[in-house]
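Follow-up to my earlier ticket, as requested here are the two runs.
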Amino acid sequence: MKAIFQRYRTELLYAALFSFVSNLFVLASPLFMLQVYDRVLPSHSLPTLAVLMMITVLLLMAMSMLDTLRGRLMSSIARRLDSDLGEPLAKALLDQSRLGPAPTQQASLRDLGTVTQFVSSPGLQAFFDAPWLPMFMLIIFMMHWIMGCVALMGAALLFGMALLNEHMTRKGIEMASGATSYAHRHIEALSRVAEVLSALGMTDRAVARWRGLSDHALEAQRRAAWIGGVFSGTSKFFRYALQSSMLGLGAWLVIVEHVTPGIMIAATILLGRALAPVDLAVGSWRNFIEARVAFRRIAYTLSNVPTPRAVTELPAPTGILEVENLRVRLGEESRDILSGISFKLSPGECLGIVGPSGAGKSTLIRALAGVVRPASGRIRLDGAELDAWPLAQRAMHFGYLPQGVQLVPGTIAQNIGRLVVDADAAIITAARRAFCHDMIVGLPGAYDTDVGEAGERLAPGQRQRIALARALFGQPSLVVLDEPNASLDGDGEQALLASLKAMRKAGVTVVIAGHKPSLMMHCDRLLVLNNGGVEMIGPSSEILGLVTGPSPVKSKPGFESGGIRETSNG
């Protein structure tokens, strides 16, 4: 929060200055009433009335312009806030989502909307007007000390109600905000598996479960809104009651000839203007707390983003991959998912990774892709650790096909080209490398075919072949593939094998996790994982001979006669 104030210090100072001058111009109305009652009416001077009217109208117009400028300034701050935090927050959310379920404190882009909406709302502007309340109190004291005491007691009463409102509603609003955020994340998670829910008849039960979470959030909101409404209504009652009391007190002081009628009217107007920001602040307190909670979540999310360090661009890699005593531990896991993994690949060499369910194949692929960070050990590309490569440069020479293939919303060309603009030639080259060019041009829209939100407009095999072309976009020296033939038919698998052969011939280093012998037999070496460690590593012909020969080794988990078997994801 402090950093935000520092960043927008100039704009906030201008907003405070506009508020100060605007509140000075507010005095125009009570001073006009004072002069009308005490000068114009007794003297019956029409020229004086005309001059006073002209001056007052000009001052009120200036006040209106300053309020408008302040509102536009706060809207500008809200836009800058969205611009400055939106992209880093989106990157942080995408970066954290790849590591698994989001922590409960994690923000969302809705939180940023909550903050920016409050910044541009009249609720925040009330906080700029409230500090000038003592100035109005002093002026009322100058009119008469009894009026000043009543005004001061009324202001203290409303401030006390504001503090009590904060104490009574803060916890409830924070709970309601957290419950609402959790319910939103839950329905978003359900939407990603809608197909499974429908096929297995789970939709009604899933919706009922979400309904329970939503009802809990709504109940928390209802309680917080009820308490806040009580305070808002009570505050409004006391404000109008104080104004009426001030008018009655002024009338009494006029009767006993302590003040003039003009002072009576002016003091009443000043009190109403002085208490208006406090009343507005009490009414918008719920929005203030929600914005504060949302900003804390944003700050928490952004604080967990590592600061990128400047790295020197390295020469284009040749594809030498070295893994040294790699150990990986994900999230809050107390055990190592991978440990003691070591191997080295030369340019153009292909390594296959096999093993039983839970052996860590996909985790190893993700570590090689830089998606997960090792707890210890080294992953080197041409002698330099992965973090030593500038991300943009490494991406140019790296290809990755994950196990769960998902395309980004857009066209086939945008997916293959990794959203790079004006890269038609490179896109077509990548499609030809993946031997899917003919398949793409056979579609109604060819390369401009819209794939849908996650590629659902294409068949699974088509998605996988396009994802392979995406992995081969650019000038890859290292390509890692996780189950690249999981959804392929016969033609697709032949295209994959042809692409693999072309990659090896071009000197591209390839790492493949899979379980079909028809694919693994085309690798130079096989690495057998079991319980997160290396069980065997050697030439593919020797490893496949052990597990597919007439006397298979039954002690090797995940293998059986006739092929390599895997029951679920590594």
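Run two:
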Amino acid sequence: MIAPPQSRVRQAQPAVDAKPREVPTGPRWPRYAPWLFVAVACVFGLVTMSGELTIVQPVNDEALHFEMVRWATQQIHEGNLLPFDGWFPYLALGNAQFSHYQSLPHLITAYMSLVFGTDSTERWAGYLLFALFPLSVYAGSRLMGWSSWTAGAAALVSPLLVSVTGYGYESFSYTWLGNGLWSQEWGMFLLPLAWGFSWRAVQGTGRGKYALAALVVGITIAMHYLTGYFTLLSIGVFVIVVWRGLLPRIGRAAVVFGGAALVAAWVVVPLLTDAAYFNDSIFNQNTFWLNSSGAPQALQWLFTGQLFDSGRFPIVSLLVAVGVVVCACRFRSDVRARVLLGLMAMSFVLFSGRPTFGFLINLLPGNADLFLSRYMMGMQLAGDMLAGVGLAWAGESVFRLVRTLRPRVRPVAIAAGLVAAALLLTLPAWLNRAAYAASDSASIATQVESDSTDGAALNVLINDITSRGGGRTYAGLPGNWGAQYVIGQVPVYEYLADHNVDELGFVLRTSSLLTDNEAYFNQADPASYQLYNVRYVLMPSGMTPPVPATLLATSGRHQLWLIATSGYLQVVDTSGVVEADRSDMAAQMQPFLRSPAFQQGELATVAFDGGTAAAPTLPATATPDSPAGSSTDALIEEQDGYFAGTVTANRTAAVVLKATFDPGWHVTVDGQAAKPYMVVPGFVAVTVGPGTHTVIFQYVGYSHYALLLGIGAVTLLLLGFGPWIWREKIGRLVKRRRVLIGRGAA
């Protein structure tokens, strides 16, 4: 915010792209005083957000994330020390969640949970990442060459952001009362550092620049794909902000880009390998979440303060505007100014999305899976740093003015007054965020009370379900009575996720191919319960299932009902073929699930993603008058992706495992390997002949993680020691050449 007299000349914006340095002479206080801003921001978060440490039932996407942590912790306890892949059975009829999703945060937390306990570690991780985010902003700003005052001012502003969408780098994104974007929080913490290290590497400054940049950017990718993707795009901005020496800069950027990709290969390669099985939900297509809202809406939110100060006086937005003006004025002389404006512009294009910039965005690889609405995060982080520039410029200007008008006033006194003025200027924003944190804590306290009373009664029935096993549990859907069946503020279908119950109803949480069809579950159709192996129904007292069911138990106001199903395995006839891919699973399969053939117990085989469907077991004109067969679940270990049973087929038929199809499924029939295939609504199946058989479905994860991790490690070693070895080798050759030339001249 304030530049001391000794450093003001050095802080003037450089005409070249070398990193500016503050003059080390003079008093020490200007170098350490900006840390006061960092400390204020961190202490504010640590104090006001402390309610987040309370052990409470999640009410948002944290339920999925914490369920993933518990799955990984259990795998570690079972001896799988690196659970990079495996069958995650609890949501959307199962999914290879850890290879389809950014799982590094969950793995790190799982290992920490071995010491501190799962629930506590999950809460502390999110709490500290947000509260200490100002440290990352400060470090990233400094790495990008900004003065300590500018970096400190940016850190001061960072906890104050609040947007109209609630999906940016703000408290609502991560708190219990908010959206629970737990993985994004890890990416958020790393992004300023990824910017800083990759900027230094592209600039060609600092020791170990390539290894550090590749490591931090690679980890960012593994923490949160959307943030990592954005970081890779940011490297392109770092290249073009200076035209002089463009080719060497492109080369350095390629080293960072390629190095980061290789470091993150252990998460990226499996994802790309199975990209066809990553659901492209019809509920996201052509929506704000995927396409964003267009430049006019983005500009309206920006100029009305809704991106940085939604619902309050736009103090942060004004500081951003000042920073933009300052950087625009320094555009030609200061490469750092061009970097921030370039990052802001790129973020604006992404956040505006396809309605305005689809002709550009559609050129990006993998653009169909980019949730463009989330890229407000780039505008917020670049805006935060611009606000730091604006606040520091204002402070420096006032400092100079006071020193000119009142030269006898001591600089320390001026600095103290300006620090106090900065805090007073932003006080309304601090009060606004403190009020939100207080409401979040109050809501958590209320939920804790509900958990200990109404939730305790429900836990009795959940324990009953767990002990009985053998099927999934249904407690309504978001689109029906399930939304009103709540414990405090937590829907019971979400409450089940926090207790590792294999359920149907907490929809659209994973990339499972079945999640869209799950949302169309017909609770009035007995055949649908059999199809999805929904054996248990939880309902509040006063309600009864719309299909035949037996009341098992009552606890408090909750009732547990049992519905007869065949189990996870079923012998069926298959007739007809449905064509589908990851973008239209429900659209293509729901017509069959409403057909007479389905009501007769038949399923269709699926020609998936342009492939060839398995041959149906029934001839086209056949009309069977008896069941295809029967099955008995013999050994079910959902956590480990193992389903075994004994089946009796009355004729050639399909044995269906009521779990999402994935190329990782391996099937044996009577000890012999058999080829699995997909059937409606996206299950895995295998054909058997007449007679009694032992059938085993086993999920086998991706097998090349060790190789990919080794590639990443070797990449870091080469980037870390390669430049040094190269310089030493060239140095020796040059020295030898000079000696030889000298001898020749003599």
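The only thing I checked on run two: The chain has 29 helices and 17 strands. Let me know what else you need.
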